């Protein structure tokens, strides 16, 4: 059961149902917000009614944070776009040749040769971890797969402005009421009977992230420790549980930020949030001042990339900037 997602799912349904709408739909946001679950629920509810006759789903997931806080890593041998296209073709009933170097062209020809009555929905989960993601983005933006077929993506990285014919739906943490219902659905009688004020600290620390909420409630039930102790564990970013959370949510994006903008600029722009309290927002002018990045072009590029990677959040028409409180602790406690 999903909580607080019905309005968003209805919007995605419209994106899928209207032939004239963008033919690439991207669900974008931080790790753990339920992008995959929302995609699955939307497809299960509405794909057939929207007229899709063939559905292909591939995942490029490389990390999974288990309910007990353990971090499970997957191999990436099959995460090249060629191999994912082969998996999609097999599910869609499209024949590819024996030579893997021609699979992408074969797939394009195969999907275009389908009868007009056939509509394909392609779902690519965790797009950002595809090994040759830049090639994929270029492919998606080249209009090689035209309407009536559509592509649904989940990704931590923003694609708006990089891919044509795209609508981007940003996934956010659960609002208070939905988060409270979710917590009570996971817990025992004691959690179900707890007051809103008693459960509110869970939402404040997790910022409504469903994965972190589930992790917290599981830890609370299995450790038999007081709520305050489990909260402290979750926030201890240098210890096992906290470190796994940071690795799952942010390690890959932090690495990309350093590669694209340089270690110094990446370090400076995130440390600019340290004079603030955890979860507090800051204006553009103050963020630039705190960062110490003197060159305007360097600052703007670093800010843009950090936002695209879901490391920095924007609000109020891009007039305010913030980072998750757990990322704040990781950055500012070092």
Structural overview:
The structure is a single chain. With 334 residues, this protein is α/β, with parallel strands linked by helices. The chain folds into three domains: 6-170, Rossmann fold, CATH 3.40.50; 176-235; 241-332, Orthogonal Bundle (Arc Repressor Mutant, subunit A). The chain is built from 15 helices and ten strands. Strands 2-5-6-1-7 form a five-stranded parallel sheet, sandwiched between helices. Strands 8-10-9 form a three-stranded antiparallel sheet. A two-stranded antiparallel sheet has the order 3-4. Helix 6 (176-186) packs parallel to helix 9, helix 9 (210-223) crosses helix 10 and helix 12 (263-271) crosses helix 13 (284-291). The longest helix is centred in the last third of the chain and has 22 residues, at 240-261. The two termini are 38 Å apart.
Question: Which key features would you list for this structure?
Answer:
334 residues; alpha/beta; Rossmann fold; Arc Repressor Mutant, subunit A; 3-stranded antiparallel sheet; 15 helices; globular
Any idea of the CATH class of the largest domain? Answer: Alpha Beta
Say how many strands there are.
Answer: 10
What gap, in angstroms, lies between the N and C termini? 38 Å
Whole-number mean pLDDT: 89
Radius of gyration: 21 Å
Anisotropy-based shape: globular
Helical segment count: 15
Q: Supply the CATH architecture of the largest domain.
A: 3-Layer(aba) Sandwich
Low-confidence stretches: none
Strand order of the largest sheet: 2-5-6-1-7
* The CATH topology of the largest domain: Rossmann fold
> How many discrete domains?
3
* CATH H-level superfamily of the largest domain: P-loop containing nucleotide triphosphate hydrolases
Please outline the major beta sheet: 5 strands, parallel
Q: How does the helix and strand content classify structurally?
A: alpha/beta
Share of helix, binned: 40-55%
Strand content: 5-15%
Order of helices and strands: HEHEEEHHEHEEHHHHHHHEHHEEH
């Amino acid at each position: 059961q999903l909580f607080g997602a019905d309005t968003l799912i209805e919007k995605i349904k419209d994106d899928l149902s209207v032939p004239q709408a963008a033919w690439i739909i991207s669900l974008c946001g931080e790790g753990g917000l339920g992008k995959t679950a929302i995609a699955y629920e939307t497809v299960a509810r509405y794909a057939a009614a929207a007229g899709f006759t063939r559905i292909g789903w591939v995942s490029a997931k490389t990390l999974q944070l288990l309910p007990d806080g353990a971090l499970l890593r997957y191999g990436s041998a099959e995460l090249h776009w060629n191999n994912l296209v082969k998996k999609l073709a097999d599910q869609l009933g499209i024949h590819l040749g024996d030579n893997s170097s021609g699979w992408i062209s074969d797939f394009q020809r195969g999907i275009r040769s389908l009868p007009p009555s056939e509509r394909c929905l392609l779902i690519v989960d965790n797009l950002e971890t595809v090994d040759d993601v830049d090639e994929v983005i270029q492919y998606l933006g080249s209009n090689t797969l035209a309407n009536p077929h559509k592509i649904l993506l989940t990704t931590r990285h923003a694609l708006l402005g990089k891919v044509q014919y795209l609508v981007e739906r940003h996934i956010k943490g659960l609002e208070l009421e939905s988060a409270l219902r979710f917590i009570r659905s996971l817990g025992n009688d004691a959690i179900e009977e707890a007051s809103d004020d008693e459960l509110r600290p869970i939402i404040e620390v997790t910022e409504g992230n469903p994965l972190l909420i589930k992790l917290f409630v599981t830890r609370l039930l299995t450790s038999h420790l007081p709520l305050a102790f489990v909260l402290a564990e979750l926030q201890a970013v240098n210890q096992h549980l906290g470190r796994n959370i940071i690795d799952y949510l942010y390690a890959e994006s932090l690495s990309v930020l350093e590669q694209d903008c340089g270690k110094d600029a990446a370090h400076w722009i995130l440390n600019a949030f340290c004079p603030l309290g955890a979860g507090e927002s800051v204006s553009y002018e103050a963020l630039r001042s705190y960062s110490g990045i003197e060159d305007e072009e360097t600052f703007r590029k670093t800010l843009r990339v950090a936002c695209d990677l879901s490391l920095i959040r924007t609000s109020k028409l891009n007039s305010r900037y913030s980072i998750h409180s757990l990322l704040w602790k990781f950055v500012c406690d070092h």
